[in-house]
């Protein structure tokens, strides 16, 4: 698989400048950062939550974890992790676990954690487990202009920059 068609469309529509960084197959965001030789703080990961109203995407640095109470407070919703089967159905043009951050393009309310807002450049999944999209911070924020900014992440213990 290559870049998701949905992501490709978003990048084209926004006139985004980016490069593709290829890396060995990886299973987790921290494994991806190591395999691609990129700083974990600059690698965006996407975590999907749900409730009876639908889905909410949280985009944050791979060195951070979602504080669910903070995200639920921000959204005013009682969220829980989305089911694995739902991810496959919602992101049909992506490999499981390789979700790009442009979830607004998939019709989901998206929240962008402050952990990524001040990064000089950002990397994120292209829709598969062997390529990242790399762009400067301003380009990333322009791509994510439909996301609401919030502070819901916390640095995981033992995670360095």
UniProtKB/TrEMBL annotation:
<dbReference type="GO" id="GO:0004812">
    <property type="term" value="F:aminoacyl-tRNA ligase activity"/>
</dbReference>
<keyword id="KW-0030">Aminoacyl-tRNA synthetase</keyword>
<keyword id="KW-0436">Ligase</keyword>
<dbReference type="InterPro" id="IPR036754">
    <property type="entry name" value="YbaK/aa-tRNA-synt-asso_dom_sf"/>
</dbReference>
<keyword id="KW-0614">Plasmid</keyword>
<protein>
    <submittedName>
        <fullName>YbaK/prolyl-tRNA synthetase associated region</fullName>
    </submittedName>
</protein>
<dbReference type="Pfam" id="PF04073">
    <property type="entry name" value="tRNA_edit"/>
</dbReference>
<dbReference type="GO" id="GO:0002161">
    <property type="term" value="F:aminoacyl-tRNA deacylase activity"/>
</dbReference>
<feature type="domain" description="YbaK/aminoacyl-tRNA synthetase-associated">
    <location>
        <begin position="23"/>
        <end position="141"/>
    </location>
</feature>
<dbReference type="InterPro" id="IPR007214">
    <property type="entry name" value="YbaK/aa-tRNA-synth-assoc-dom"/>
</dbReference>
């Amino acid at each position: 698989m290559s870049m998701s068609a949905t992501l490709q469309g978003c990048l084209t529509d926004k006139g985004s400048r980016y490069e593709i960084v290829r890396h060995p197959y990886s299973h987790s965001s921290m494994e991806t950062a190591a395999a691609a030789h990129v700083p974990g703080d600059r690698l965006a990961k996407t975590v999907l939550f749900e409730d009876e109203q639908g889905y909410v995407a949280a985009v944050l640095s791979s060195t951070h974890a979602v504080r669910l109470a903070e995200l639920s407070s921000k959204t005013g919703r009682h969220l829980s992790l989305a089911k694995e089967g739902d991810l496959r159905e919602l992101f049909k043009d992506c490999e499981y676990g390789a979700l790009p951050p442009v979830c607004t393009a998939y019709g989901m309310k998206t929240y962008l954690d402050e952990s990524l807002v001040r990064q000089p450049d950002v990397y994120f999944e292209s829709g598969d487990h062997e390529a990242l999209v790399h762009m400067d911070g301003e380009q990333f924020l322009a791509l994510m202009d439909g996301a609401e900014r919030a502070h819901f992440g916390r640095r995981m213990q033992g995670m360095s920059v």
